[in-house]
Amino acid sequence: MHDLDETEARRVRLAELILRLRRAGVTEQRVLAAMEAVPRDLFVPHESQREAYAERALPIDCGQTISAPVIVGMMTQALDLGPRDRVLEIGTGTGYQAAVLSKLCRRVYTIDRFRTLVAAAESRFKTLRLTNITTMVGDGARGWPEAAPFDRIIVTAAAEEVPPALLDQVGINGVIVAPIGPLDGVQKLRRLVRHAEGFEATDLADVRFVPLIPGIAARL
Q: What is the pLDDT of residues 65-100, one digit of tens each?
């Protein structure tokens, strides 16, 4: 009986999530289906289970956060992903965003500066049998030059400007989605499209993200 109750509760939470996403303008059916298919409660700390689908960022290990569901949906939709795309994610965190992306593209490359976060995310990917995600402990500001160019790049930590290495690693007609602005205040969720003559930028929403810190964490 308990399992049935929990299954019904998850169904209700997912239905509420999809409604919130649609109200926020996330209407792309592939994105909605991907977010329905990834159990968000697997990606939040045990003490936050009851808030897994709440519309706010939640704290995770290493002083980081998992973004609110609507923000994940907005950023995913803004990437305009195709099934053959190769995507670079800066900031693995718990792995939730990468798991959603993996349902929509050919391969996700995801980087985090914290070894413990990457290891835990890898375990979750294995549990869900997500085989098209490649992880690395590294400096997100450097990107992943060995695997470039990418069709899409998503940055889940704030910078005052997009790191030049990431601008170099997205292909022509590629898209970068990143929070840009002051590290201790409100940033703009910015979408940049690379054309032959340069980048075209569009601001999508006001957001607050933890800062993008160069380098690899010493211990964690």
A: 999 999 999 999 999 999 999 999 999 999 999 999
Burial (CB count <10 Å: 0-12, 13-18, 19+), residue 93: buried
Distance CA 190, CA 147 (A): 24
- Show me where the domains of the chain are located: 2-207
Q: How far apart are alpha carbons 188 and 205 in whole angstroms? A: 6
pTM score, whole prediction: 0.93
Give the up-direction half-sphere exposure of residue 134: CA atoms within 13 A in the CB hemisphere.
Answer: 11
- For 106, the token pair is 């050919």
Active-site positions read: 67
C-alpha 140 chain-centroid distance: 13
Q: Please provide residue 136's backbone torsions phi and psi, each rounded to the nearest 5 degrees.
A: -155, 140
Cα separation of 186 and 202, whole Å?
A: 16
Task: Write down the CATH number for the domain with range 2-207.
Answer: 3.40.50.150
The CA distance from 79 to 98, in Å, is: 13
State the burial class of residue 17 (Cβ atoms within 10 Å of its Cβ: 0-12, 13-18, 19+): buried
Place of tokens 């609110």: 68
pLDDT digits over 112-134, tens only? 999 999 999 999 999 999 999 99
DSSP 188-219: EEEEEEEETTEEEEEEEEEE---B---S--S-
Angle at 218 between CA 56 and CA 169, to 5 degrees: 70
